[in-house]
Design goal:
alpha+beta; D-Maltodextrin-Binding Protein, domain 2; 293 residues; 30% helix; six-stranded mixed β-sheet; 2 domains; five-stranded mixed β-sheet
Length: 293
């Protein structure tokens, strides 16, 4: 009976090991890299393409696996191509809005940390009151442009009512240049990027772009090597690449937060009144809710 039990155990172990071997991810024949990051310090989509192409070439030389890089100029085309990507450098706003599609591996340290100080900037200075009825220009953010602007203003201002008009341009570099050229009166931008403009006032900080895993079927050792390569290479115009970091993107009176966890978790923070409260909106209780996919 003992011999029979031992034989059964050996057979079971053999089948278990065989099943694991069959399900273990195979080494990829090719790695595909993408970038969609309009709300970052890259000067143009060509600069973004050059960066991701450089990443692909660097990883290819390191891992001896053919790699390709592709830059996307719109959120729609990027979303539609996620099934054909393995890794991507992703805009913080897009990341927060599409939390389930990515696992953050590394975060840019542009501005000195995982978040960059932002501000409202105008040409020649002025005050916020002097901008009432004027033109505000914003970088494209997948339809969330006004919501993000209102979040940067702590949810206290209705942007389309306060400003005379709102222009949407392809990226942050275009927004800054539009104000410099006189095509608009003000824009929101990272402080480090607003050379040539005058700070009206500092706003909330924003998370930096993150390098993320898209294809979760890749072997862990490949993912680890790619993450190490990207951190060693850095973020080009975005500075260095640090560890994965959580990021909160202010939107209206709601702050959408992506956390570097798997499965992805989204935290919504909002101010609410659970009981009678005397004081200003900014001093009201801050409530956190979590959505786990």
């Amino acid at each position: 009976m003992k011999k029979l039990a031992l034989l059964f155990a050996i057979i079971t172990l053999t089948f278990t090991q065989g099943a694991y071997a069959q399900t273990k991810p195979k080494a990829p024949k090719k790695l595909r890299f993408g970038i969609y990051a309009p709300n970052t310090a890259f000067a143009s989509n060509s600069a973004r393409w050059s960066y991701i192409k450089g990443v692909a070439n660097y990883v290819q030389g390191l891992l001896k696996i053919p790699c390709s890089g592709r830059a996307f100029s719109s959120g729609g085309s990027f979303s539609g191509s996620l099934g054909g990507l393995d890794f991507a450098l992703v805009d913080p706003i897009f990341m927060a809005m599409h939390r389930g599609s990515f696992t953050v591996l590394a975060t840019s340290t542009y501005g000195g940390g995982s978040r960059a100080p932002w501000g409202l900037y105008a040409k020649g200075g002025g005050t916020f009151s002097s901008l009432k009825g004027k033109t505000l220009v914003l970088a494209r953010a997948g339809g969330a442009e006004v919501s993000v602007a209102e979040g940067l203003l702590s949810g206290e201002v209705k942007v389309r009512k306060y400003f005379g008009s709102v222009k949407i341009v392809p990226d942050l570099a275009s927004a800054v240049q539009t104000v410099i050229n006189g095509g608009a009166h003000a824009t929101f931008a990272p402080m480090k990027m607003a050379s040539g403009l005058t700070l009206v006032f500092a706003t909330s900080s924003m998370p930096n772009a993150s390098f993320a895993l898209v294809n979760r079927k890749l072997p862990k050792d490949i993912v680890s090597k790619v993450r190490g390569a990207v951190q060693a290479l850095g973020g080009g115009a975005l500075g260095g690449m640090g560890g994965a970091a959580a990021g909160g993107v202010p939107m209206g009176r709601i702050k959408a937060t992506f956390l570097s966890a798997y499965p992805p978790i989204l935290r919504f923070q909002f101010r609410g009144f659970l009981k009678p409260f005397k004081g200003t909106y900014n001093k009201s209780p801050l409530i956190s809710n979590y959505y786990k996919q």
